[in-house]
């Protein structure tokens, strides 16, 4: 049966990298004997220009009906000075909320061919294979807030951090299920020595994990976790944490791979899954044909795995990316002397040539 996806190119390099990923996805699907249809929709800065808002209802409606959503990147300096409620990044938060996407999965893996390009020593990063499970629709990003205002003669602003038991239960449960297919270890990250919300988080995490006999749950304060990701990143299996901590830690961990352009993500929950690379829109290199499409290509692989239930096609794409890197092909962001520098489109073709 044919599946249908929505492609949201977004801004900056978004159009280039989603086109490359879509091409690879279509080639992998053909080799695995299935097909999918797709349509393109606006979100982010492109939607502000077209509709005067970052997330049109037309885009939301199409995403709700789709089997999966592939997103490029949104935002850029062009839209930095619009009203806070109209910022391009609101498109991402809005999609997560409208689609009920409460979990962000970010696999952090160091490709053997790129171990020397990590800022850490190869012997430290060679064993890195981490899955970060970040809560997406709760916490301080979605709490009440007060924009800057003068109160009693002093300018101030505030944001509220809050988590409920159901929000914590479902994200920890997802992390434990993910761990069952890995090494069976979950590190729950919080700041329970200071924050009330973190104390509830830890209490509920212990209760949920008790229902998974084959999972070992441990706890770590966020500051220590940030340090251990640099000192001993190979010690982690699955990390589960809240929205703010997850945002920071996942970006820190992304650097271990040698380039943020290599890493995919999946946002999952009650509705259509959303898949995107973790890097930004890079407007300074947009249209130059030098953007690294591998993070988006690997995001398409995750879309096949989690939303279309096409594991063979997902694994085929991931193996092709591994082979391309092993064969020495590099986009500008990961290029080193002695390797073969390729454009965005040439990298796309190299991956397609190695499918299967």
From TrEMBL:
Site, as annotated: Important for catalysis: 141, 191
InterPro entries: IsoCit/isopropylmalate_DH_CS, IsoPropMal-DH-like_dom, Isopropylmalate_DH
Keywords assigned by UniProt, alphabetized: Amino-acid biosynthesis, Branched-chain amino acid biosynthesis, Cytoplasm, Leucine biosynthesis, Magnesium, Manganese, Metal-binding, NAD, Oxidoreductase
Amino acids binding substrate: 96, 106, 134, 223
Enzyme class at the top of the EC tree: oxidoreductase
Top-level lineage group: Bacteria
GO terms for MF: 3-isopropylmalate dehydrogenase activity
Transmembrane regions: none
Residue span(s) of domain Isopropylmalate dehydrogenase-like: 4-351
Stored Pfam families: Iso_dh (PF00180)
Subcellular location: Cytoplasm
Record pathway: Amino-acid biosynthesis; L-leucine biosynthesis; L-leucine from 3-methyl-2-oxobutanoate: step 3/4
Record has Cell membrane as a keyword: no
The EC number(s) this enzyme carries: 1.1.1.85
Function: Catalyzes the oxidation of 3-carboxy-2-hydroxy-4-methylpentanoate (3-isopropylmalate) to 3-carboxy-4-methyl-2-oxopentanoate. The product decarboxylates to 4-methyl-2 oxopentanoate.
UniProt-recorded name of the protein: 3-isopropylmalate dehydrogenase
Source species of the chain: Sporomusa sphaeroides DSM 2875
